[in-house]
Amino acid sequence: MRDVPMTSHSALARGQHGRALLLWLLAATMSCSSRSEDNRSDPASQQAAEGKYTPAGDEGLGASVAILLDNSGSMEHAAGSDTRPKYQVAREALEEVLATTDSFVAKQPDFPINVGLYQFSSDVRQLVPLQRYSRDALRRALEGMPKPRGGTAIGLAMDSARADLYRAGAIRKYILVITDGENTEGPSPQDIAREIDRRSEGAVRLYFVAFDVDADTFGFLRDVHGEVLGASDGVALRASLDTIYRGKILAEAMDAGETLPVPRADTPTSTSPAKKKP
Description:
The chain is α/β, with parallel strands linked by helices. The chain has a domain at about 75-255: von Willebrand factor, type A domain (Rossmann fold, 3-Layer(aba) Sandwich). It is built from 8 helices and 6 strands; from the N terminus they run ααβααββααβαββα. The longest helix is centred in the N-terminal third of the chain and has 36 residues, at about 5-40. It is globular and about 45 Å long.
């Protein structure tokens, strides 16, 4: 009997190994497909994917505001009578308006206000996490933002902020978007807004400031209990931001009746001394 050349043994081994690998890959593919089919047919899985948002932990007194600032390439242009680019005007206006939180905190020290800052262009970046309001942290983040570039991923930014709002631990939740253009990247903000409204059951309020763009671009907000204000230049931008942030978000928190318990009619107070028993 002739000896089989070594090269034949090697070729045989490689062939057996290749067939074994092919069978393993085929089995793995069928298993993944089966699991995918099971998930699609499982009502519990569908409910988890499409049902009401649930917080990551306990939620209590307070308000969380996620501010989404457009940093797309078009923000390098000027708006209206402004001589500076929109990104400089917007950052300055936002810093001024956020400073009004100081007086709110002084009046309501026991009411937690969380403020987070995000920038979006073709992607989304969290600059300041949703945490107790810090004027210094927000100012440093605004001053350190890079120059505008890329597209406009409004819907993606909204969805990212929404997820963080449900980890911040506050009952009241707000998303404030400042943008100068239509969505060009990722999911549609209209679709995301409808999903947020439905799955939060109205718990997440949506506010937009349309800076140097027709506010009707975001008219869909009216269908999800949101609101959009227009701003043609820097002066109008500061006014619109103030109307929304101080005039609506902070005012709603202050008027919510959550900061102090309402005394019962039969509960003694400092202005209504308790009657002595006969």
